[in-house]
């Protein structure tokens, strides 16, 4: 496990990575997924997910982005509350009621 300094918040995070994947955590026990300056979970050719204090969260874009070959859908979440999902063409697939 490596240490990582978030370039926006300045927080010291823990980075666990392997071939084709990276996960960022706020704690050494790897229980709190967290990163402000990018996705906290990256699985190459699959998806990227943004987390803040273990909650899916992103204000400036989708919190989950799936790879194009999986469908390319994008999900918007704020404080772990689902807002909407768009397909690769930007059409609403699902949205908050």
Task: Briefly summarize what is shown.
With 97 residues, the chain is mostly beta strands.
Keywords:
two-stranded antiparallel sheet, nine-stranded antiparallel beta sheet, 97 residues, mainly beta, 11 strands
Overall tally of structural domains: 1
Total number of strands: 11
Our Rg estimate from Cα atoms comes to 14 Å
The residue fraction in helices comes out at under 10%
Main sheet: which strands, in order across? Answer: 1-2-3-4-5-8-9-10-11
**N→C terminal distance:** 40 Å
Task: Specify the structural class.
Answer: mainly beta
**Sheet with the most strands?**
9 strands, antiparallel
Q: What shape does the CA trace take?
A: globular
> What proportion strand?
over 45%
What is the arithmetic mean of pLDDT? 96
| Low-pLDDT sequence parts | none
How would you characterize this protein structure?
With 97 residues, the protein is mainly β. It has one domain (2-95). Helix content is 0%, strand content 45%. It is built from no helices and 11 strands. The strands form 2 sheets. It has a 9-stranded antiparallel β-sheet, with no helix packed on it. A two-stranded antiparallel ribbon has the order 6-7. Strand 9 and strand 10 form a beta hairpin. The radius of gyration is 14 Å and the shape is globular. The mean pLDDT is 96.
